[in-house]
Structures are given as C-alpha cells and as structure tokens.
Design a protein that fits this description.
This protein has four helices and seven strands. The chain is α+β, with helices and mostly antiparallel strands. Helix 3 links the parallel strand 4 and strand 5. Helix 1 packs across helix 2. The longest helix is centred in the middle third of the chain and has 15 residues. The chain is globular. The chain starts with a strand and ends with a strand.
C-alpha cells in the first residue's frame, strides 16, 4: 500500500476515474438521486483535484483507493472516498481516513465531515465504527424526503 498525493504531475486521470466509477457502481439503482460520481469526466476530475486535496493509494502499480478532501471553516470535508471492491477489507479506507485526519490537524481543523446516502446503511455502520457520528439528515435539491446524512468525527488535539 503506497499512499501519495495527487498533484499537477499526475497523469492517470482515466485510471482514477475508473477507480471511482467501479467503487461507486454498487450504488446504481439503490440511491436516488444517482451519485455525482456518474457525472465525472477525466477533465472534471482533474479540475476537482486542483480545487481539493487528493490522495490515492496504489498497490503494485494499480490505483486501489482515493480520497478527496476540502477544507471548510471548522472541519475537513471528506468526499469521493473510493476503494476498489477487490481491495476492500484490507485497510485502504482506514489508511485514507488516517491521511484525512493528518491533513486536518496540519490545517488546525478539529473534525472530519462527510455525507453518505440514506440508503447505504452499511456505509453508516462502517463510518460509525471508524468514529463518525450522525449529525444531520438532509435532502438534495428537489427532494422532500431525506436523501443523505451528514457525519462528523471530532479529532483529538
């Protein structure tokens, strides 16, 4: 497992896009509205990476996980946390969240924040096991029902 920061020298946008799409594919038909991942392109992904802090993990030259981080006023937002299905259960997601915690602390931020779809109960349980607590239920624009929950993890000084 070799984590690295994606910067301007990164060129494997199609591989990163494939990683995200394969990792999020299980959501298709389970969540409404569909994941924003389905609208990503190599170009939009490269722009997103310029605007955010992005780390990836590779194993034997293959991208196996990634995480997108965006500093907010009082926390670090965790988005597009993706791990290849064949690589899940091997500590990659946990390692990426450790990197997120390190990044937050370096910036003086006291918490991590993420959003996960209301239908994805397994994700709720996994994030809770990793120390996240549900802080809000919210709806995407145009929806009258809850479509996602917000979860936060306070970081020890």
């Amino acid at each position: 497992m070799m984590p690295f920061r994606i910067d301007e020298s990164f060129t494997r946008w199609s591989k990163l896009l494939d990683l995200i799409l394969v990792s999020f594919a299980y959501m298709e038909g389970r969540i409404d509205p569909p994941s924003s991942a389905t609208r990503l392109t190599m170009e939009s992904l490269a722009e997103k990476a310029k605007a955010e802090i992005v780390y990836a993990i590779e194993n034997k030259g293959q991208l196996t996980g990634c995480i997108f981080l965006r500093p907010e006023k009082d926390c670090l937002y965790v988005g597009k946390l993706a791990v290849l299905p064949s690589a899940q259960g091997k500590g990659i997601g946990r390692r990426l969240l450790e990197i997120a915690e390190e990044t937050a602390r370096e910036r003086g931020l006291q918490a991590l924040r993420l959003e996960t779809r209301i239908e994805l109960l397994g994700n709720h349980a996994t994030f809770a096991a990793w120390g996240f607590e549900k802080t809000a239920e919210k709806s995407h624009p145009g929806f009258t029902r809850v479509t996602f929950i917000e979860m936060r993890k306070a970081l020890a000084g």
